[in-house]
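The passage that follows is intended for readers who have already worked through the single-chain material. We present the inputs for a multi-component assembly, then the predicted structure in tokenized form, and finally a short commentary. You are encouraged to pause after the input and sketch how you expect the pieces to fit together before reading on.
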Amino acid sequence: MHTSAVDRRHDVRRILAQFKDRPGPLLEVLHTVQAAFGFIPPESISLIAEHLNLSRAEVHGVVTFYHHFRCAPPGQHVLQLCRAESCQAVGAEALAAHARARLGVDFHESTPDGRFSLEPVYCLGNCACSPAVMLDGQPYGRVTPERLDALLREADGAAGGNE
Amino acid sequence: MTTIYVPGDSGALSLGADAVCRAISREAAERRLEVKVVRNGSRGAYWLEPMLEVSSERGRLAYGPVRVADVPGLFDARWLEGGAHRLLLGPTDELAWFANQQRLTFERVGLIDPHSVADYVAHGGYQGLRRALSMDPAALVDRIVRSGLRGRGGAAFPTGIKWKTVLEQPPGQKYVTCNADEGDSGTFSDRMLIEGDPLSLIEGMTIAGIAVGATHGYIYLRAEYPHAWRTLTQAMAAAYAADYLGGDVMGSGRRFELEIRVGAGAYICGEETSMLESLEGRRGEVRVRPPLPAVQGLFGRPTIVNNVITLATVPLILREGAEFYAGFGMGRSRGTLPLQLAGNIKHGGLIERAFGLSLRELLYDYGGGSASGRPIRAVQIGGPLGAYVPAAQFDTPVDYEALAAIGAMLGHGGIVAFDDTVDMARMARYAMEFCAIESCGKCTPCRIGSTRGVEIIDHIIAGHDPQGNLERLEALCGLMVQGSLCGLGGMAPFPVQSAMKHFREDFSARAQH
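Having made your guess, compare it with the prediction:
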């Protein structure tokens, strides 16, 4: 655990060097950090603040302002379920209830085994194919509860196979 | 060799286009047939996606919706020679849904390979920029003014006037920024354009830079669009490699550099000043205006902020002339609008038409009515801040002013249909809830008002003092409209007020419970 935090600091410094001399780089830095670790590790906040001549509060403020940035590691698979109007018009609320029951978690939570995170999203821009979800970055349209079950099973199977 | 077009648009991918594409390659290899596969954008008929096209002497033939299991059968039916199959729809251009559209901004979307500069140029691309480079900046800006083009992001401000303001600022660093933070539910035209014809946006931004003397542009793209990001990144690299971007644009000696910045899931960053804050690496809190971004925008410099569709329409205006574009439309709404049909609709997708067609034509002639087969009770136009329009007003023309006259707004052109099972009090509650989730928190009416709004509607839904609570809700809506700093808090009450006005029974009937 200790080593990984040290490694992370090293990686964050490397990322910061990459964005040196770029105007207004904080969001890009955070995106790159999250792409590397899956979340924004708490120990990276002060490093980023120091390098960009910001206060820790400012960096923390930005991290928590944007829904996309996570302060804790996500599950192995991330299910983003659209809850906006177009999807609501064709059953997204029922689909959301199904996803919560199936995974046994609420939105913004991960399953205790760490396999799935459930996140709300307000529009994936796939509104002509509502209800829409994104699973691990892949879009799926016209998702019924049965199709969602199949997608989750498939993802879970793939995860099991990797172990 | 026959070309097969398999959309790489993320909507088509969401319905299995990648798997279909793999099946085609496999099947063609097994049958020792040589085919060329092009991953085009979507033509926008999403109920037919994945809609594949095969090149033929009759033009492109459409087949759809194609599933993996259909692929061997298509080859058996000799589809590469235009063979009959139950999925054969006919020549794409002759399908009523496409034939009745007026595609200007979307003229190439779904037709070309979005990554190919050569394909783009072969279909009329970069003629606009060539023209722009030969023009005096004032004449160039005047052409945009005369085209009547208004901002397609939602505010409908005259684009040429905005450019003129930036042009008139003293020389020095200026910027062109593209707002690609398409967060409104029911809208996907920005995504489709970027995935289907990204070079038109790149060309439009370059022309804007040439027009106002800006050498640097930023595209603020939402994080929810990873596929659009990939296509845009590849197209930009191709444009740089062919000297359409960089230090010597088309050999003119003029510089224009372009960068993509990815958003981070904040709806408010679709508001222009909030987007600028976010581009500068801060929380996306709105700025007080004035100063306008055209005077003091990104990093304090004069900045054009335009939506994707606005900028992507610019090359066509340069190529065909201001009068050509202004020849479409009605009243003060000139040109065409890529409308997006979504929600509970049978034939959802993108329809580009001149302003002036009615909502009814859109919903029934193009949309085919609701997906559920039940009557369409309401549509929400212009995203989560747009009003709900009842069936009695479906003869209203799609026109900025005509919609404003009935208390609605066109916004970014998204239309979400709801059938008669919709509970409008719940939709009103959602409007307030969404505002509470997405408020930047800078001004009180939006930050606190939206939360109080949710609570009041909860009381109404529970049947607690509906009369008193409806009055409180009306008063709160008025306060938010009057007192909010930007359009989020200032317009979030529109869906609430319109729901109360047109669907009162969904609120008052709660009294009996």
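Commentary: The first strand of chain A starts at residue 77 and ends at 82. Residues 2-65 of chain A form one domain. How closely did your sketch match?
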